[in-house]
Amino acid sequence: LTPTGSTSTKVELRGNVLLLECIAAGLPTPVIRWIKEGGELPANRTFFENFKKTLKIIDVSEADSGNYKCIARNILGSAHHVISVTVKAAPYWITAPRNLVLSPGEDGTLICRANGNPKPSISWLANGVPI
């Protein structure tokens, strides 16, 4: 089975295409199956290529992080390999701040929600000066 060993790691960026490859040798030719440990492969974004040797997940997100196992099996036995996938993400807006127009003495609220991996820190500035 290629990759060799029992485990390997892969890092991909949010929004990209995740490609995982597992090549098995044997006679009769092994059938390859992919599973996500503790979860499901994303139904509408998962594709298999090269007779299931390649697992392709499009538009990956942080939720796609986890352990993916390829299992190669024929009538004589099986072999498996686990690929630990981490999806990293540059900061992105969940709720971006919006312009706020207030009259003197009026209260207002600005909301800023961002995410990423690693989790971004949020800081507020007024006219370029930290608040």
Task: Explain how this protein is built.
Its main location: membrane. Keywords: Cell membrane, Disulfide bond, Glycoprotein, Immunoglobulin domain, Membrane, Repeat, Signal. It comes from Psilopogon haemacephalus (coppersmith barbet). The chain has no helices and ten strands. The protein has 131 residues and is mainly beta. It folds into two domains: 85 residues, Immunoglobulin-like; 40 residues, no CATH class. The strands form three sheets. Strands 1, 3, 6, 7 and 8 form a five-stranded mixed sheet that branches. It has a three-stranded antiparallel sheet with strand order 2-5-4, with no helix packed on it.
Keywords:
rod-shaped; immunoglobulin domain; Immunoglobulin-like; disulfide bond; membrane; three-stranded antiparallel beta sheet; 2 domains; 131 residues; 0% helix; NRCAM protein; five-stranded mixed beta sheet; cell membrane; mainly beta
Share of residues in strands: over 45%
CATH architecture of the largest domain, by name, is: Sandwich
**Number of folding domains?**
2
- Major β-sheet profile: 5 strands, mixed
Give the number of DSSP strands: 10
- What is the CATH topology of the largest domain? Immunoglobulin-like
Oligomeric state of this protein = single chain
Mean pLDDT: 94
**Name of the CATH first level of the largest domain:** Mainly Beta
Element order, helices and strands? EEEEEEEEEE
CATH superfamily of the largest domain: Immunoglobulins
Keywords: Cell membrane, Disulfide bond, Glycoprotein, Immunoglobulin domain, Membrane, Repeat, Signal
Protein name: NRCAM protein
Subcellular location: Cell membrane
Pfam families: I-set (PF07679)
